TrEMBL record:
The keyword Iron does not apply. Residues 40-70 have a biased composition (Low complexity). This is Lipoprotein. Residues 71-81 have a biased composition (Polar residues). Coiled coil: none annotated. Residues 29-117 are annotated as: Disordered.
Amino acid sequence: MHRTTTRTARSAAAVLAAAAAFTLSACQQDVDPGSGGAGSPATPSASSTHDSGSGSGASSSHAPSTSQSPGASESEGSGQQAGRVRLTPDGKVNGVGLPASVDTVTGAVNPALGTPTKRTGKVCELSGDTGPTVTLDYGDMSFYGEAPNGAPMRIKSWTIDRDSGKPINAPYGVGIGFTQEQVMSMVPGAELNEEGTVFNDGPVITKGDLTYFLARNKPTVISIMYRAVTCE
């Protein structure tokens, strides 16, 4: 009777040991090698808030969902950030400086925003030049180029004038809907013109080649332009 009980106990222990080994093996096979293993803290996906450009952005209830979280910016000159369009204060588009050819700009932007609607026109008469123009419209933002006096077509400026959630990182983290106070605090050295311009009834804030157009009645950003082209 004692021997029978001992054998039964040993058999049960062997079964339990085998089951434990099988369970451990299965768990190890299910762990993603790059996840840090079971029990590792989950890594949050990049949030759709504004890239700081050269500084950290402030949160806002108006913050467009078209940029990355502060501190998640790529290093200068590192090229395109996967699936996003990163705009820097000096006008670069995923590392591409302007002016640039149409093919160069679409090559940098299309992977993130898709194929643009293309419109053509004529160079502004007030400039004294002649020649064709092109606008590449991606929905939330557009690019403008011209070929004055027989020169090659070059994209020279961009505009952000809406926010539907496309993956665009605006300079300094400022986007559509930001208040005048936010822009002035987030853009170092920004200059405010409260009287507006002939092209905008509301306040206008400038920093280098960047221009922020604000609504008159509620001073929030309605358009951001790099090398503003205001002659239609």
